[in-house]
């Protein structure tokens, strides 16, 4: 609907469209197989997806098959107001995008009115410390660091203690992606986790693995290795904008069964999008099918001047302005957040009157925006 992911998935969508240039109402199994493989869905998973589908597949059938890959029982750990500071440990191989993603998260928390402190525990390279310091400066937040070669655990410890003393809401800790050996890295990460817990019981509250999206399926083994070192609580996939391998997200979700919290769609601090499986699947299906989205009940022949499901960027900006006026931030195509209380609400397309609604308790609309307001 809002195209947040569309930009990030541009290259993946181009590859799908190159395989199937003409959008249609149904596609055959062979066609589907080709385009899933092109988008870097793993071979085994493609087989598994095709197994459950008929010879001619419509949008709803494919939607159900793909969305089911993201449905697994897993606890999503989110920051809450009681946990202060909420400590996040960021791990991943060199170059995956750890430091950049830390900056993006920090920017996000700051824009939510929260205070953030960084811990530069990648003490392996001097350049890594400098890079994080530059981001801290740019965003305008404090950072705890030492000299290259010093104990990364001590930095993690100090940043948590300092944040506690200052009443800071978030601590985000950077780590090295490579040491002299894999065993060294495992030992070091385990030690950082232990020491965080010493500084504050329960910390780190979220251990996030950063995966480089341009690696596609080959990132899965890497993820397993890190998961064995320290239990990972979730994943952020970076550089989706730079790859046609967006389909690997299906395999990553299906194989690892870990929450995907965000995806990175560029190098700037704002280029971090909360990952929403429904939006992801819909964005891909939009590149294949001509039909309206499944389940909206909107008859194809009803034409409105503004299609609330496919807002142009101008209409989107207008919508964000209206939300802002009413005290909401747009989080993703499905959610807004009350700026004051921080509470999130679901968005709903009401196709009967072509409006976008904010749903409150028991899915009762608490606010409604008609299409014509978006001009
Ligand atoms: N295009 C793009 N580049 C990214 C993204 N995330 C990180 N990068 C780039 O990837 C490179 C490595 O990132 P860095 O944060 O230093 O990785 P680290 O070694 O894991 O800390 C940098 O040039 C980043 O600008 C993203 O989402 N999109
Ligand atoms: Mg780094």
* Side-by-side strand order of the widest sheet: 5-4-6-3-7-8-9-10
What proportion of the residues form beta strands (DSSP E)?
15-25%
How many distinct beta strands? 15
Main sheet: strands, sense, barrel: 8 strands, mixed
Mean pLDDT metric: 90
Whole-Å distance between the termini? 16 Å
Global shape: globular
Bound molecules: guanosine-5'-diphosphate, magnesium ion
Q: Radius of gyration, rounded? A: 22 Å
- Relative helix content: 25-40%
SSE-based structural type: alpha/beta
For this entry, give a set of tags.
eight-stranded mixed beta sheet; alpha/beta; binds guanosine-5'-diphosphate; binds magnesium ion; 39% helix; globular; 375 residues
Give a short synopsis of this structure.
The chain is of the alpha/beta class and 375 residues long.
Account of the 3D structure:
This protein is of the alpha/beta class and 375 residues long. The protein contains 13 helices and 15 strands. It has helices at residues 4-8, 10-19, 29-38, 43-51, 59-67, 98-111, 126-139, 152-166, 182-199, 219-229, 248-256, 277-286, 313-325; strands spanning 26-28, 56-58, 86-91, 116-121, 143-144, 170-175, 206-212, 234-238, 260-264, 272-274, 328-330, 335-338, 344-350, 355-359, 365-370. Strands 5-4-6-3-7-8-9-10 form an 8-stranded mixed sheet, with helices on both faces. The chain has a 5-stranded antiparallel sheet with strand order 11-12-13-14-15. Helix 10 (219-229) links the parallel strand 7 and strand 8 (234-238). The two termini are 16 Å apart. The site of guanosine-5'-diphosphate has 19 residues, from helix 6.
